Every structure is written in C-alpha cells, then in structure tokens.
Amino acid sequence: MQIEIDIEEWPDGNWPDLAKRTADAAAQVAPELANPRLVASLLFTTDDVVHQLNREWRGKDKPTNVLSFPMVERTDLVHLDPDEGAPEMLGDIALAHKTCAREAREKEISLEDHAAHLIVHGMLHLAGYDHETSDADAEEMEAMEVKALALLGIANPYTAHETE
User: Fold this and answer.
1) pLDDT at 162
2) What is the CATH number of the domain that holds 48?
3) Is 131 annotated as a binding residue?
4) β-strands 66-70, 2-7 pairing
5) Its GO CC terms (predicted)?
6) What 3-state class would DSSP assign to 115?
7) What would the pLDDT profile of 104-113 be if each residue is shown by its tens digit?
8) pLDDT at residue number 147
9) Is 121 known to sit in a ligand binding site?
10) Can you give the residue range of the structural domain that contains 14?
11) Residue 160 belongs to a domain
C-alpha cells in the first residue's frame, strides 16, 4: 500500500516514517491492506479541521481523535487483484493534533505511540472493520489493533490504566 501524507500544524517529528511503519503493521494483521495497488491518504491536522470534517460527513458537531473515510467496499477490497489494474484509492484518514496530544497525556503515553494506535485503527476502518456494529466486531478489531501495535513494540492501549 502507498500512503500519501500531509502534515498541517503538528509538532516536528518523523510522522511519515511512523505512518509507513504503522501501515505496514496494519497490513500484517489485515493482509488485504498489503495490496500494492492501494493508496491511502493520511492527514495530520488540527482539531478544527477534524471537527469540520466530523460535522460535514458524520453529522457530529465535535472534534474527535481520528476519522476514516473508506472509498472501497470490503468485498471489493478483499477481491482486488494485486497485479492488474490502476491504483485504487482505499480512503482517507485524518488525525486531530490537540485531541491526540491530550489523550496521550491522559494515557501517559507518547504522542507517537497514540498516533500509531489511531493510524492502525483508521486503517482497519478503511479495510472495512467496524467496532460499532457489534461487540464481536469490536473485540475482533481491538485484537487486531493490539497485535499490530505489538509488532511496533507498543503496549496494549486497552490494558493501560485499566485499574484506575
């Protein structure tokens, strides 16, 4: 998969490298993402931009940490020939800086680790996984996220601070 990255008003960091490593980890747990014809865009942006996107496309008038906009149906994605055809736009992901940074502070983890989690989460949404459809789907998606993050050396974000 190819990733087009745009960075707007995020702190200095090697966000393109993080995005690539994270997308590769997501493709290891969701092999349909490893198709070389796929292209995804990833926008590191402000809370205001994500708020606007959330309001416009999801009808939710608030910022959020990550938004995903799939452009390929899951059945088409799974059957996409990796060797023949033009590049296929998988979808777009947008990360909101202030919300991500606040959540990372609250979880007492680095912004990089939290952004990696949210990128994996977004990639899985682009692949057609949805934690909002059922408890079983949520558990499947969470397990995939944990596995992908482990490949990156990042702790399970769902067990951190569970005792609080």
Assistant:
1) 47
2) 3.40.390.30
3) yes
4) unpaired
5) cytoplasm
6) helix
7) 999 999 999 9
8) 98
9) yes
10) 2-151
11) no
Domain tally, the chain? 1
**Calpha distance 126→76 (Å, rounded):** 12
Query: What is the structure's pLDDT at 164?
Result: 36
Place of tokens 């490298």: 17
Q: Which residues of the chain register pLDDT less than 70?
A: 160-164
Domain assignment of residue 157, yes or no: no
SS3 at position 66: strand
Q: Which residue has the tokens 């682009």?
A: 126
Output the pLDDT for position 160: 57
pLDDT value, residue 163: 37
94 by Cβ neighbours in 10 Å (0-12 / 13-18 / 19+) ranks as buried
Residues, the chain: 164
Torsion, Cα of 80, 81, 82, 87 (10° steps)? -70
Residues 9-39 pLDDT 10s = 999 999 999 999 999 999 999 999 999 999 9
Q: Is 97 annotated as a binding residue?
A: no
Among 62, 57, 53, 66, which residue's Cα sits nearest to residue 22? 66
Instruction: Tell me how far apart the alpha carbons of residues 63 and 71 are, in angstroms, rounded to a whole number.
Output: 22
pLDDT at 43: 98
